[in-house]
Amino acid sequence: MFVDEITLRTLNSEGHMLDTMGFIGLWKIVVVKNLPYTDMRRVGKIPKLLSHRLFPSARYSIWLDSKLRLQLDPLLILEYFLWRKGHEYAISNHYDRHCVWEEVAQNKKLNKYNHTVIDQQFAFYQADGLKRFNPVDPLKLLPSNVPEGSFIVRAHTPMSNLFSCLWFNEVERFTPRDQLSFAYTYQKLRSMNPSKPFHLNMFKDCERRRVAKLFRHRSEERRNLHQQAIE
């Protein structure tokens, strides 16, 4: 579990103390310091997308957002999402949106990031060949162009590692809203490496919900309760 010093102090104040081996429960705690970005959303993409760089001896990794808890043995997850059909990267599609055009509009509607930067990113991708998602196109590269990126299962193969690095490059170049850059990165990887297969498993979001249960942060719960009280 990657945490900053403020989060660690909060955990300690709530009675969750590190043991002598540096664990809290099942989690080995990694306290990050000297952060490379002031934007914590961008900082969070380092362990999310570059796990093969942080753990070079690991053969596999499972990324889990802090709001999720695994409901299955990790080995069963590797078997189901990767080993069973020879995949090297697994991520679910978004539960509602499948086109980057929709994702851009939603990000701007909810003010997820600076609108000008989002527009610059979107214009660049369109100029470089990104098209609207067509679900009935028999030649489409992906079942959806928008992922639900809270749960990622990876084998640390050369192509999987290359995809993750290229995806991180887009997050660093434009916005940390990684759902905006996923499809562009995948299409770019495939077009630049036509002779090298990349076995990506983009599964349905209902499968993600089966293996990773959502627990909302307390601040979100308070906002929801406040909204309900207003209504």
UniProtKB/TrEMBL annotation:
Pfam families according to UniProt: TOD1_MUCI70 (PF04765)
InterPro entries given in the database record: TOD1_MUCI70, TOD1_MUCI70_glycTrfase_dom
TOD1/MUCI70 glycosyltransferase-like domain boundaries: 1-217
Domain of life: Eukaryota
Stated name of the protein: TOD1/MUCI70 glycosyltransferase-like domain-containing protein
Source species of the chain: Punica granatum (Pomegranate)
